[in-house]
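Checklist before submission:
- one chain only
- standard amino acids only
- sequence pasted in full

Submission:
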Amino acid sequence: MPVKIILLTALGFLFLGMAAIGLLLPIWPTTPFVLVSVACFSSTPRIKAQIMRIAFFREHIENYENRTGLSLKTTRISLIWLWGMLFLSVAVTQNIKLAALLLLIGIAVTVHILWMARAKD
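Returned file contents:
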């Protein structure tokens, strides 16, 4: 196996792991990491096929490739998870400056999610 394929495969798994973090951290981007990991796996179709079996990642990849936007269910779950975790973070830290920063981040991520949810022409 050529070194290039081994390196791309390792990077693909690294980026896929970073995308998985986005499932738990609402301010961590998921889609860019999924797309980069799939690009890395393009030299190993067997691994890409395995990733496409995971519904969460497949939805992001297919939505990007087909420009169909996010489903209403995915959008709702993303926004509920985002704001729930942000409010929990504010409650735990009880810091007004951090609360203001989290509010700004939450607004920016909400705008991004709503933009991603729209189907592209």
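Reviewer check: DSSP finds six helices and no strands in the chain.
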